[in-house]
Amino acid sequence: MSRYSAQYVAQLVAQHDYGALVDLQGIALGWDRFDASDPSFGLPQPLFAVFEVLTWLAQADRSGVWTYYEATPVQRQDRVLDALEALRAAELRHQYLYGKEHWRMVEAVGQLDSWISKNEQSTINWAFTVLAAHPHELALVCS
Question: Exposure string (b/e) for 73-103, b if CB count within 10 Å is 16 or more?
Answer without folding.
Answer: eeebbebbeebbeebebeebbebbebbbebb
